[in-house]
Backbone:
């Protein structure tokens, strides 16, 4: 393996040179990095290599098998698309963080041991935080702060699990873990937080809409999907994940229907889509795992496409709320077309990519006779079309004419969207190349008459419901508001904690200040200066002898200070006394 | 600046679009009757099951969302 450079190193080390290069060369350099990483991937054979011996442990930077390879491919492809989309951004912070972030996600994918995994895992969290901060608004700074705190919590859970795991097993290598014992639960929660499983999900809808236009594209692809990879690696067939996944598909769509910020609608639908993947991992059969992996592959492309097209709208108009947008198909027809391709793909329309991947997970649930799960997944499929498939394009590009007149985004952005859109359609029409790289042999045939017609009915009659509800005015109107989610607990809880601590600790502080720093020293000072008067005053106060008037006493006595002997006098007396003792002692013995 | 697209500004175009949409729905309902099915669950083989399920799903989605809004909607500056 000496002639190969690890793909994560290409992106992470390569990113550090970005600020040194200027002009057109920089654009070429930025695009070259993911291409180079992809070429390396193609040359990497299966196996374990890039093993570094540190202390008593072997760090494995290259665990290459079919599962890690699929994620490696898609992460480099989306890095290229994301870099192309962000090519005109004149902000090195964003370029560097995006590349480090992508490199770390690929690092997570190929890590064969817990140490290197953890380092890449944390690097991802840090690099992605800068993609939120780079928006440079108050809201984004606050969101980034919450984002990194939540991810530090998740990272610490993972670390705790890793430490206990290593303690128990004596090795840092990992593959299947399964829910068994404390170590596995900590690891499960750590990974689950990044996969946005409820109730640990709200960081996603909180942070992604506040990220930069181009940063959100990377974020939508990397964090949750690297967690999906890791979950598929360590917890396949964990029954709990089936139910968590089913919940994840259903709950966010209600929020998505109500949400006003278009990118937040997409964030909720992202959670919904990852729900399908969690469900697939939970079912754990070959069909389900194939479905999960292929769905992650397709999802990264169409979700990035949706974030790119809505990001273009934000970039060109500065607006992203449903209430502010509408009628943009008139001036942004290509962006509108790309958005609709993304929307059709996420909705799993026949001939669009979601159709050939998501259906594997749904079929796996019916093969396993999971009635309730199957019903929820079908409900969620119809719901996805409702909010991501129709609502996003409709309120942005159609609906009421907002009066905004703009133009298409720059060519590089259109090209990036075009490439993603091409993949969305190409995968659906020729799924074989994708099926060929999946972890298990694929015997699934997506295009059967019953499946195509059934899926079309599900979606089109969902659309009919949307149509009738909009026309009748019953559809919940778009309004500027926020909807409470589980982040309420730490956002309000954090404030409550702050208030409690502020009240309790600062009050103790104030009392200590009054007593120890002021009152007691003053009193002691007074006592040492005028001991008799002070003690007398205390005596009078304590005994309640009010008839003893202190002022009179003061008048009778001489000023106290004059009664005191100089310090030297008692010292002299002591020395004389000791000397006479010495003399006595000498003469007597 | 390029010429603007205005196809949906004309009500007759919207009407044409909706008519095409409704016709496609009817076609789907009819085609489904002639499709051979081998679903894992018996109800998958009921004619037009998915049409009913899709419609009911989306209507109930909106109904529940409207109720949910009453509970969770807050002012935009709720966390400020």
Residues:
């Amino acid at each position: 393996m000496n002639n190969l450079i690890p793909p994560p190193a290409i992106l992470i080390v390569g990113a550090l040179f970005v600020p040194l290069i200027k002009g057109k060369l920089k654009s070429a350099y930025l695009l070259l990095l993911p291409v180079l990483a992809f070429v390396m991937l193609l040359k990497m054979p299966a196996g374990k290599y890039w093993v570094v011996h540190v202390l008593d442990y072997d760090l494995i930077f290259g665990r290459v098998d079919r599962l890690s390879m699929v994620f490696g491919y898609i992460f480099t492809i989306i890095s290229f698309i994301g870099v192309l989309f962000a090519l005109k951004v004149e902000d090195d912070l964003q370029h560097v963080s995006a590349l480090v972030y992508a490199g770390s996600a690929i690092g997570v994918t190929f890590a064969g041991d817990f140490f290197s995994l953890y380092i890449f895992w944390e690097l991802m969290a840090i690099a992605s935080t800068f993609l939120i901060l780079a928006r440079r608004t108050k809201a984004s700074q606050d969101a980034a702060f919450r984002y990194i705190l939540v991810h530090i919590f998740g990272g610490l859970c993972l670390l705790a699990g890793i430490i206990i795991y290593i303690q128990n097993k004596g090795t840092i290598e990992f593959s299947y873990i399964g829910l068994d014992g404390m170590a596995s639960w900590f690891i499960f929660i750590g990974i689950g937080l990044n996969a946005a499983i409820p109730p640990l999900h709200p960081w996603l809808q909180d942070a992604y809409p506040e990220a930069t236009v181009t940063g959100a594209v990377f974020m939508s692809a990397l964090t949750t999907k690297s967690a999906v990879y890791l979950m598929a690696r360590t917890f396949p067939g964990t029954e709990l994940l089936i139910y968590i996944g089913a919940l994840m598909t259903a709950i966010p769509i209600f929020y998505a229907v109500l949400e006003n910020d278009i990118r937040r609608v997409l964030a909720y639908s992202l959670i919904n889509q990852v729900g399908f993947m969690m469900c697939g991992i939970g079912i754990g059969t070959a069909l389900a795992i194939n479905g999960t992996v292929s769905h992650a592959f397709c999802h990264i492309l169409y979700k990035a496409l949706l974030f790119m097209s809505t990001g273009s709208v934000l970039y060109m108009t500065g607006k992203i709320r449903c209430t502010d947008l509408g009628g943009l198909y008139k001036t942004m027809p290509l962006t509108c077309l790309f958005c609709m391709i993304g929307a059709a793909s996420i909705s799993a329309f026949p001939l669009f990519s979601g159709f050939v991947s998501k259906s594997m997970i749904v079929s796996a649930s019916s093969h396993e006779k999971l009635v309730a799960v199957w019903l929820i997944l079908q409900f969620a499929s119809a719901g996805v079309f409702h909010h991501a498939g129709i609502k996003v394009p409709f309120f942005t590009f159609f609906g009421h004419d907002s009066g905004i007149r703009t133009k298409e985004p720059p060519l590089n952005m259109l090209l990036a969207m075009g490439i993603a859109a091409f993949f969305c359609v190409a995968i659906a029409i020729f799924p074989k190349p994708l099926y060929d790289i999946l972890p298990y042999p694929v015997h699934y045939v997506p295009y059967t008459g019953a499946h195509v017609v059934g899926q079309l009915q599900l979606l089109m009659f969902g659309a009919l419901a949307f149509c009738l509800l909009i026309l009748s005015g019953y559809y919940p109107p778009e309004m500027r508001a926020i909807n409470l989610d589980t982040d309420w607990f730490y956002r309000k809880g954090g404030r409550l904690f702050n208030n409690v601590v502020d009240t309790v600790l600062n009050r103790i502080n104030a009392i200590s200040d009054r007593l120890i720093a002021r009152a007691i020293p003053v009193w002691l000072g007074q006592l040492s200066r005028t001991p008799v008067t002070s003690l007398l005053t205390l005596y009078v106060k304590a005994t309640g002898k009010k008839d003893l008037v202190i002022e009179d006493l003061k008048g009778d006595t001489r000023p106290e200070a004059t009664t005191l002997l100089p310090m030297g006098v008692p010292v002299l007396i002591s020395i004389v006394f000791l000397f006479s003792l010495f003399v006595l002692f000498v003469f007597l013995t | 600046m390029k010429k603007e697209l205005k196809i949906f500004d004309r009500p007759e175009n919207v009407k044409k679009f909706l008519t095409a949409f409704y016709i496609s729905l009817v076609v789907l309902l009819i085609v489904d009757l002639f499709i051979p099915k081998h679903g894992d669950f018996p109800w998958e083989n009921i004619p037009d099951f998915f049409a009913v399920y899709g419609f009911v799903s989306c209507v109930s989605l909106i109904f529940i969302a409207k109720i949910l809004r009453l509970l969770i909607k807050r002012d935009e500056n709720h966390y400020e």
User: Anything to note?
Assistant: Helices of chain B lie at 11-32, 49-72.
